[in-house]
Design a protein that fits this description.
The chain is mainly alpha-helical. It has one domain. It is built from 17 helices and no strands. The chain is globular.
């Protein structure tokens, strides 16, 4: 009997948190992306194998950051008109100016996180670059965006090895340029994920038919990408690929390979659709409130875990760059529970996350004109 009041309290909290226009499934997917990146940072994930359930935690490796980038496109679409792009005029100009400022701020925050010495590939510099690249695309409708996303996904992975071989990366300044551009998440390929997210956000994302279509299409893309990768890895008779092609025809995490783009991009769309469909069920929406709270303030949660890492590793290990030592402390679940508790309490009592509110304030001041 004691469980009923707790459920009622959680349901009441959910009503105070969930606005009428808020897509809870987007927050849920964003929360999962943040926790997935946290897992990739704090846990030495094994290589993925369908036949070994102990390895399934490796689903977080690479896919979480791709989901995060896809959701960036969804968010940009939602603030720039949703299913109907904003017409040319003062309002569109203000949105573009705000997104440009926000992208620059995200880039600056990312560079500050890199300066902590925490040994993770900080995604925010790449995130900021992607925000800037989205500006010319805000007038495009869903059909044009889906077509553009498909073209980018199929073409850019073939060009990426050529870009990676540029002499710049072997020069003295190459490492600094790589950090500044977030080249571990090369915008030349990752723009495909952002555009796919934009397309999803322009496709009446709150409609059940859109959510089902995204689930089916995303699952099909994931099956193709991972299925072809598994077939190539198994050495299917009659299929021989050269060394150059093998660098492209792979679904390995963070490879920017064609099969990763197709498979993990499809995975991101399917997971977004699952989250949207799940949150149509009241009980599921209430049960996932802590995850949705994390997803409502992803910048706060992401920055908070890296700052906490830097502080703990410095105090306990004497070196914020000690990756093995930090993972040996087994802090993943304490980080998850602490993040969920903080974000839930803040969302219910105050609303917008602290860093989200600060970025919004600075954006309004700088974008005014």
């Amino acid at each position: 009997m004691a469980a009923a009041p707790a459920v009622d309290t959680l349901a009441a909290a959910d009503r105070s948190f969930s606005g009428a226009a808020r897509l809870g499934g987007v927050d849920l997917a964003r929360g999962l992306a943040v926790l997935g990146m946290l897992a990739a940072h704090l846990i030495a994930l094994p290589a993925w194998s369908w036949s070994d359930p102990a390895s399934w935690g490796a689903v977080a490796d690479g896919r979480s950051s791709i989901l995060f980038a896809t959701l960036a496109g969804v968010s940009i679409a939602l603030v720039s008109g949703g299913a109907r792009p904003l017409p040319r005029g003062p309002r569109l100009t203000r949105v573009r100016r705000s997104l440009a400022v926000r992208g620059i701020l995200l880039w600056l925050i990312g560079m500050l996180l890199i300066a902590t010495g925490v040994p993770v590939y900080v995604i925010l510099p790449a995130y900021g670059v992607l925000f800037l690249l989205s500006l010319p695309l805000l007038r495009l409708r869903a059909g044009a965006l889906w077509t553009l996303a498909a073209v980018l996904a199929l073409v850019m992975p073939w060009l990426q090895p050529l870009l990676d071989a540029a002499p710049l990366w072997q020069s003295e300044d190459g490492a600094n340029v790589s950090l500044a551009l977030g080249w571990h998440y090369p915008f030349t390929v990752w723009i495909a994920f952002l555009v796919a997210g934009l397309a999803a956000g322009r496709s009446d994302l709150g409609a059940r038919r859109t959510q089902v279509a995204l689930l089916v299409a995303g699952a099909a893309l994931a099956a193709v990408g991972y299925g072809v990768d598994a077939a190539l890895a198994a050495g299917v008779d009659g299929i021989v690929i050269g060394e150059d092609a093998s660098a492209v025809l792979t679904a390995a995490p963070h490879s920017s390979g064609l099969l990763e783009v197709v498979g993990s991009g499809g995975f991101a769309l399917a997971l977004l659709a699952l989250c949207l469909l799940a949150c149509r069920v009241r009980a599921a929406a209430v049960a996932t409130l802590p995850l949705r709270a994390i997803g409502s303030m992803p910048l706060t949660a992401y920055v908070g875990q890296i700052v906490a890492w830097a502080i703990i590793a410095t105090l306990v290990l004497g070196d914020p760059g000690d990756l093995v030592g930090m993972r040996d402390l087994q802090l993943f679940w304490p980080f998850v529970l602490g993040t969920a508790a903080f974000c839930t309490a803040w969302a219910l009592r105050i609303g917008r996350g602290p860093l989200e509110a600060l970025v919004a304030l600075v954006t309004r001041r700088l974008a005014r004109g």
